[in-house]
Amino acid sequence: MKNDNLFSIGEFARLCGVKKDTMFHYDKIGILKPEMTAENGYRYYSHRQFFTYDIIACLKECGTPLKEIKSYIDHQDTEYFLKILEDKEQALKEEQDKIERMRRVLKNTVSMTKKALSVEAGACWVEECEEEHMLVTEKLFIKEKSMADQMNVIDQLFKAIEETKLQEEFPICSIVLKEHLLEGEFTEDYYFCKISGPTDHPQYAKKPAGTYAFIYHVGSYQALPESYRRLIRFIREHDYEIVGNSYEHEMMNHLAVKDPEKYVLKISIKVEKAAL
């Protein structure tokens, strides 16, 4: 005869709000075994086991693995309980921070991509800019470096981005040094990623505040020299001189469009009014 203080596996599962398969699994791994198993193999649970199930449900809700929950049930004490909850609280905070960073990156990238769809190719202008923060690679193109070395340098930038967790946008941008601009050489010297603020990371650098001349380049990377020459002509025609590096900001690249002729870059070069 069934004891009124015992519940069949179906009744117990229904009262706990789970499927019978869940209870079979908990029995199998030893986390919540039935109070009694009848000769016919039927499993029965007692009212006391609702407390054990409550522990399992609460810790599962916090994201605790079943193996860790079993360990807690086997060695239950308040300090262990607090440690589990504090660890999960920290894990949730880290996940929340990650989500907020990704939302920021996505929002900025969406805004930039939409802007890229409406730019005027070849348009030049001058603008006052505030200081910006970035992570920068080692110098890219040195004769002694192999292609594998170059890729390793770029990989180090991605690692720095992950370490600082300050990334602002998806695209990786480029720098051309002032001396190369003046020589008519426009191959990128460094890659960089714009970040949201200063950091003590060794790859941290600043884009100086000041006056910058800009141009929108629409087209492939191979066509970049013509946009550079156009911008440099604009700078000289408007009585400015180049006093700093060039920054190539990719607004729309292979991430958003298949045809390289539709790539959009915003190039900026630090300038000052030429002395009379």
Strands, helices and their partners?
Layout (H helix, E strand, L loop, with lengths): L5 E3 H8 L3 H10 L6 E2 L5 E4 L2 H13 L4 H9 L3 H39 L7 E6 L2 E5 L10 H18 L8 E4 L1 H5 L7 E6 L8 E4 L2 E9 L5 H14 L2 E13 L11 E10 L3
Antiparallel strand pairs: 1-3, 2-3, 4-9, 5-7, 5-8, 6-7, 6-10, 9-11, 10-11
Describe this structure in words.
It is built from eight helices and eleven strands. It has 276 residues and is an alpha+beta fold. It has two domains: 6-76, Multidrug-efflux Transporter Regulator, Chain: A, Domain 2; 108-273, Alpha-Beta Barrel (Multidrug-efflux Transporter 1 Regulator Bmrr, Chain A), CATH 3.20.80. A hairpin with a 5-residue loop joins strand 2 and strand 3. The chain has helices spanning 9-16, 20-29, 49-61, 66-74, 78-116, 147-164, 178-182, 224-237, and strands spanning 6-8, 36-37, 43-46, 124-129, 132-136, 173-176, 190-195, 204-207, 210-218, 240-252, 264-273. The chain has an eight-stranded antiparallel sheet. A three-stranded antiparallel sheet has the order 1-3-2. The mean pLDDT is 91.
